[in-house]
Design brief:
The chain is about 65% helix and about 10% strand. It is α+β, with helices and mostly antiparallel strands. It has three domains: about 5-195, no CATH class; about 205-290; about 290-425, Heat Shock Protein 90 (2-Layer Sandwich), CATH 3.30.565.10. The chain has a six-stranded mixed β-sheet, with helices on one face. Strands 2-7 form a two-stranded antiparallel ribbon. Strand 5 and strand 6 (about 405-415) form a beta hairpin. Keywords: ATP-binding, Kinase, Membrane, Nucleotide-binding, Phosphoprotein, Transferase, Transmembrane, Transmembrane helix, Two-component regulatory system. It comes from Actinoplanes regularis. InterPro entries: HATPase_C_sf, Put_sensor_dom, Sensor_HK_TwoCompSys, Sig_transdc_His_kin_sub3_dim/P.
Length: about 425
């Protein structure tokens, strides 16, 4: 790690410690308030009103702790059960929902130990670097101003001015140790927070089941919409042409003896209709699984997409091999939808597509220099991408400030590859 990196991380952790101490101290009045509302809960009606309000405050405080943990590299998911249908319509059902959620009691159990750990570690995070800074700046200044003898580090008291200036190397060493240890202290605090505020194994399973229920419903809806699209394309395209082809051939059969010239014209028309019907069928097949994807993989298929766009597209890939067919198909279609959104809405002059694999994740990033301001809630394109990714536990993040650039980052879990040629880059 570069020296500037650990200094920067240490300073950020020290600043985080300044925030954590007052937040941790806030845990104690929240705990006292929680106990008071539980005691008052025996009073009919009063507990129904006060306990949910205090619980919301405690959950907001716990969410702050989870966000601070994420800044230290420790992900802490929210474990709360989803609100049941109609819970907002009745105070009793709302109270019961909060009261029976195990995460509520884990939040309460975290308040006091979380306050102690947060204050102690936060104080250490701040005190050690400050003590080191004192040795560098304050001790020589005090001696220079003649404020009297003092002591620092391993020398107590100073007997000479030379002893006083030995605080400089000691202070530098203590400051370095404090800055180096600060991120680890913050991470330890985050790990302790995760111990109580993260979902339990049962809660994770419940959340996973709930997520799978939603993604399965989205996948079924997407599949049904895709089948309707295929049916519509066949009905309005190839089927109409095939019916016309049959009628044309039937007329030619009737005219072949009486009007051979007219029959030949009808047969030529039938040949053109069959060619058009074949083109329609190929278009439908490409919509199901493009042949270029099967033949050349995701790399080649994305480059083919880039060549078909009316704006310059730069494609850079670093894939170790071919993906599993379902994942490869999903990746192709989300990239295609993202590029279609660019051409329809962004007014971009250039686009870049980046694909790479990290760990067990396939990452796809689309960057354009258009107008920006993209919003998933503003249309069906980005929502469709999210639904297609969710079926594979994938995610999408969007950065699109007004004026651009727009950056769409999509991730798909993908662990298996088959051998492939070396990574390549180029312009479509």
């Amino acid at each position: 790690m570069d020296s500037r990196d650990w200094i920067r991380d240490g300073l950020r952790s020290v600043l985080a410690g300044l925030i954590v101490i007052p937040l941790a101290a806030l845990n104690l009045p929240l705990f006292a308030l929680s106990v008071a509302t539980l005691i008052l809960g025996v009073v009919p009606g009063l507990g129904l009103l006060l306990f949910p309000l205090v619980t919301l405050l405690v959950r907001a405080r716990a969410d702050l702790a989870r966000r601070l943990g994420a800044q230290s590299g420790v992900t802490i998911s929210r474990p709360y059960r989803p609100m049941p249908d109609g819970a907002r319509l009745g105070l009793w059902r709302y109270y019961k929902w909060i009261l029976t959620d195990p995460a509520t009691w884990r939040d309460f159990a975290w308040l006091v130990p979380g306050a102690v750990i947060g204050i102690v570690l936060g104080a250490l995070t701040i005190a050690v670097p400050l003590y080191g800074l004192e040795g560098i700046l304050l001790i020589p200044l005090w001696i220079w101003l003649g404020t009297g003898w003092y002591g620092y580090g391993a020398i107590w008291p100073f007997d000479t001015v030379g002893d006083a200036f030995l605080s400089l190397p000691q202070g530098a060493l203590i400051l370095s140790i404090g800055l180096a240890a600060a991120p680890h202290l913050r991470r330890f605090d985050a790990l302790f927070t995760r111990l109580l505020l993260a979902p339990t194994r049962n809660a994770e399973l419940r959340l996973r089941v709930s997520q799978l229920t939603v993604t399965r419903a989205d996948a079924v809806d997407a599949q049904a919409a895709e089948l309707r699209r295929i049916e519509r394309d066949l009905h309005d395209g190839a089927q109409v042409r095939l019916v016309s082809l049959g009628m044309t051939i039937g007329l030619a059969e009737e005219m072949v003896e009486a009007d051979p010239v007219g029959a030949r014209k009808l047969l030529a028309e039938a040949r053109e209709t069959s060619t058009a019907a074949l083109a329609d069928l190929r278009h439908v097949v490409r919509g199901i699984h493009p042949p270029v994807l099967a033949e050349r993989g995701l790399d080649g298929a994305v480059r083919a997409l880039a060549l078909a766009l009316p704006i310059p597209v730069t494609v850079e890939t670093a894939l170790p091999g071919r993906l599993d067919t379902p994942v490869e198909s999903a990746a192709y279609f989300v990239v295609a939808e993202a590029l279609a959104n660019v051409t329809r809405h962004s007014f971009a002059r250039t686009v870049s597509v980046e694909l790479w694999h990290t760990g067990s994740i396939l990452v796809m990033r689309i960057i354009d220099d258009g107008l920006g301001g993209a919003d998933p809630a503003g249309g069906t394109g980005l929502r469709g991408i999210e639904r297609r990714l969710a079926a594979f536990d994938g995610t999408m993040s969007l950065s699109s400030p007004p004026g651009g650039p727009t950056v769409v980052t999509m991730e798909l879990p993908c662990a298996s590859f088959s051998p492939k040629t070396t990574p390549s880059s180029g312009t479509g």
